[in-house]
Amino acid sequence: MLKQILAKLPRKSSKCDSFDTSGSNSCNNTTNSGNGIPFTNSCTVIATRLNVVKRMSTAIFPTSIVAGGDSVPPHVPFKDVSNAEKQSLFISKLNLCCSIYDFNDPDKDSAEKDLKRQVLLELNDFVASGSARFTESAIAAVCKMCAVNLFRTFPPKSYLSARGESEDEEPMFDPAWCHLQLVYDLFLSIISQSSLDAKVAKKHVDHSFILKLLNLFDSEDPRERECLKSILHRLYGKFMMHRPYIRKAVSNIFYRFAFETERHNGIAELLEVFGSVISGFALPLKEEHRLFFSRALIPLHKPKSLGVYHQQLAYCVVQFIEKEQNLASVAITRLLRYWPVTSSQKQLMFISELEELLEMISVAEFEKIMVPLFRRIGYCLNSSHFQVAERAHFLWNNDNVLNLVMRNRQVIMPIIVSALERNSQNHWNKAVLNLTQNVRKVFSEMDEELVLDCQGKLEEENSKSNVAAERRRLTWERLEIAANYQPVTMPSNISGLVKPATCLVSC
């Protein structure tokens, strides 16, 4: 068999460039026969050709593949192997960490759990040292290990769908976090390495991998969501080819949350990541980004749990309007459509966001929405919930709002003055009454003649409404008197009933 293999190999050229195990040139072992033909030692030829076979097999089947990635035992420390074997040991340790254990029982498999944790710590140190080489086989092993440990279906639990009203509720913590944290740290460290080639890694960090990673944002453990936030930010920056897919997948999460379930634990973290993503959008904005603003971001104001993520949501909206100011009127119009009539806490958040948007809106865009906007503000001024009424009165402390009102006082003052007059007469809270007097004073200083004119028209309207109310009262009194009138009882016989009808007809 060996002779057949050697016969098929190409003949060695006269110029020898290979060295034997002792370091001497193999050509030095040649001697001349008696007829002058050079004679080569047969053992040297066989050794040389076997080395050629070995090099060819190594080139076709790398050591990590031939040995199944486990040519070096995983329990050996990195410091005890040569640099050539560290890559194989790296993959071997990753394969060892694919074992899953039950952490609900702390006494079960404790030795195996400790061993896995030590290996994960060693892997993190190895990657942090910069000694790891991220070949395709290494990236595949990393993605496999992360998928086995991280990708899981969360058990059905009571979602914190109203966490905005019950912020004191304790979060849920995963008992396996001691291992999950190390896996997250390892993956984050790897994708943060400058030596990682995104074109090679994208074969394994593909759309399916990213989608499963995004699904983990629904975890009830806030520590896990924090790690995922950092990883998603790195992935978006590293894998430019996956950016459109990431935006689409996150949009779908927002759609499902806002229009279907209203149950998701990671909306705040996703919005925090997208706050920095939106700030990097180029101008002019693409149609895709405008649709994301109007169809995905703005409807997030609807769910009851708005208080959990409102700060991050408002920041994203502001980032969009800083890019294009004409989106401010779109945002305010949609906010008025989603106005929470029965939730005072959400009303406070909406008023704060409106004030922030009014600081950025242009005069032309403001004129498009000022009438419905200040009608809603007028309702808030008259709110029986004193915090809502106070927050609406504080709008006039903003110089930008005052400037917009000053430019359009002919339209806005009649709406607001009537609300202030109703407050001064009917509101129960003393602090709100004091704020009402302060706003009336500001308006009088702005345009006293217009304020007096508005008050005169309001008194005229009130007098007319009083006259109409008096007429309605008198009408109802006459109807009540007529209803209480008892007519004369008619005869019970049929003939007596028919005769008056005949007489009426003849008449």
TrEMBL record:
GO biological process: signal transduction
Pfam families in the cross-refs: B56
Gene Ontology MF terms: protein phosphatase regulator activity
Entry-linked InterPro entries: ARM-like, ARM-type_fold, PP2A_B56
GO cellular component, one term: protein phosphatase type 2A complex
Coiled coil: none
Gene3D superfamilies listed in its UniProt record: Leucine-rich Repeat Variant
PANTHER family, per database record: SERINE/THREONINE PROTEIN PHOSPHATASE 2A PP2A REGULATORY SUBUNIT B, SERINE_THREONINE PROTEIN PHOSPHATASE 2A 57 KDA REGULATORY SUBUNIT B' KAPPA ISOFORM
Family classification: Belongs to the phosphatase 2A regulatory subunit.
Record's function text: The B regulatory subunit might modulate substrate selectivity and catalytic activity, and also might direct the localization of the catalytic enzyme to a particular subcellular compartment.
Descriptive protein name: Serine/threonine protein phosphatase 2A regulatory subunit
Organism whose genome encodes this protein: Nicotiana attenuata
Lineage: Eukaryota, Viridiplantae, Streptophyta, Embryophyta, Tracheophyta
